[in-house]
Amino acid sequence: MHIEVSHVAKTYGNVQAVQDLSFTIPGGQIFALLGPNGAGKSSLIRMLVGLTLPDQGQISVTLAGQQHSSLPEGCFGYLPEDRGLYLDKTVVENLQYIGQLRGLTKSQIAEQLEHWLQRLDLLDKRKENLSKLSKGNQQKVQLISCLMHQPALLILDEPFSGLDPINQEHVLTILAELKAKGTTVLLSAHQMALVERLADQMMLLNKGQVVAHGNLQQVTQQLDPKVSYSVRFTANIDSAKLGDCQSVRHWQAQSELQFLLELHDHATVNQLLQELSQLGTLADFSRQQPSLHDLYLAAVQHHNQAPDTTQTISTQSISEGVAA
Ligand SMILES: Nc1ncnc2c1ncn2[C@@H]1O[C@H](COP(=O)(O)OP(=O)(O)OP(=O)(O)O)[C@@H](O)[C@H]1O
């Protein structure tokens, strides 16, 4: 299994939902699409599963040595954004029906049901109508419906949405186990902290464009993290004097005593400490590493403000706006 997406674009009316996207998913990888609402994640997924066609570009899928222009029926499990099970049927009825559609035998269905209902803590809900289940439990049933036929590829549109932290961890573990068995996974998500623990590749989208793409290290680099330093003084200082420090490029007050500082490129931490100690007694000093989540928020904000959004922000600073 190998998926190649080449210069794919999709427009709805005057909305460019997906703009010239290219990427490759080698078999056995977990590939995550991230991005704010309307970034184009679901539009891309719908093209991949063949629900819509790209306006431009190609999708090529290599499966067992054969090339296809879309995903062959039956080789993948798809969790759609609009969940599609029968609310007036029980959990078991829904899953039996899906299993039959997938060509599983009765005993295979029974085996899969036993395994997954137990795994996802749904055994006691098996005879309940879906309409009686919480959103999170409905989501878990929907997930089982994608897993029952043990597909080589899983395409999951927001698999973590509606799940509590414990169930998010459950799903994370299940996906990691499936990957270990060779399953390829393409998922979209908003939960960056979860995805960064799981994904081999991440593609961060905004307005249908790539903001950053690669493994965690590459994506972090592309988002151009600026290291900053947090300092807390034991007593009030004349904060205006922070702007006079030779080593300080930007500063921002976090409280009366605490400040966030960014260094000039040529400045050293020693120089900073010396200058700060002349302003007051330091109670605390630490290096701040922004999380991927924070970097991403800043990058999307920057991308949205840029007059020409066909440029990616990968080489631009994400730390503007902190008044000196
Ligand atoms: N069928 C459609 N008809 C018209 N516009 C659409 C259609 N599907 C998507 N769009 C538009 O395309 C853009 C991308 O939407 P898409 O659903 O792909 O984003 P998304 O990243 O999946 O967002 P979310 O995180 O909210 O699910 C949005 O502006 C959306 O309004």
UniProtKB/TrEMBL annotation:
Residues 3-232 form the ABC transporter domain. GO terms for molecular function: ATP binding; ATP hydrolysis activity. SMART domains: AAA (SM00382). SUPFAM superfamilies: P-loop containing nucleoside triphosphate hydrolases. Keywords: ATP-binding, Nodulation, Nucleotide-binding, Transport. Belongs to the ABC transporter superfamily. PANTHER family: ABC TRANSPORTER ATP-BINDING PROTEIN, ABC TRANSPORTER ATP-BINDING PROTEIN NATA. This is ABC transporter ATP-binding protein. It comes from Rheinheimera riviphila. The lineage of its organism: Bacteria, Pseudomonadati, Pseudomonadota, Gammaproteobacteria, Chromatiales.
